[in-house]
Amino acid sequence: MPKPFRMIALAAMATVLAATPAAATANPDPQPLPRDGDTVQAAGWYRIKNDNSGLCLDVEGARTGNGAQVIQYQCNGNYNQLWYISGDGSIKPRHVSSLTRCLAIGKSSQANGADAILWDCLGSPGQKWGFYQLGGNVNKIVNMNSQRKCLAIGRSVVAKADAILWDCIATSPGQKWQFYKISN
Fold this sequence. Notes:
single chain; mainly beta; 8-stranded antiparallel β-sheet; globular; 14 strands; 0% helix; two-stranded antiparallel sheet
């Protein structure tokens, strides 16, 4: 029988859940969040790239207002592709200079297909995220409000495909993300 793994949302959240591995089912089996010397740490600036498409998590058109759509787009180094992973579980885009917007699920929805957007950082459950390390630099980004649903692109490898919420499926390629640390 496979060993149970642990999930650690973010250091400040200190939430630990136990799970038993089961291939290709909802609610994937987590491993610990990478520690210092690995890729995702409790806080810092990251470029987040979809493992399936090779495209970066992006705020469409570098929009800064509430409701701005989060998509995947060709990695270009612009600020709307840099994300601050905070110790409080929020993920904030760099191009909003005062860091007042957070990666959120519209209306804190828990439904499959709900859009990932920017919204005022209110500390709401739909703005809290955790990570499951799948191995190496590949992780799932999990919305803590949604009963373990993942940030997903689906199977699309096309630029401008919307980032959405979807049931976490261990083998889903559109739910696998790589994190590249830019700075603290």
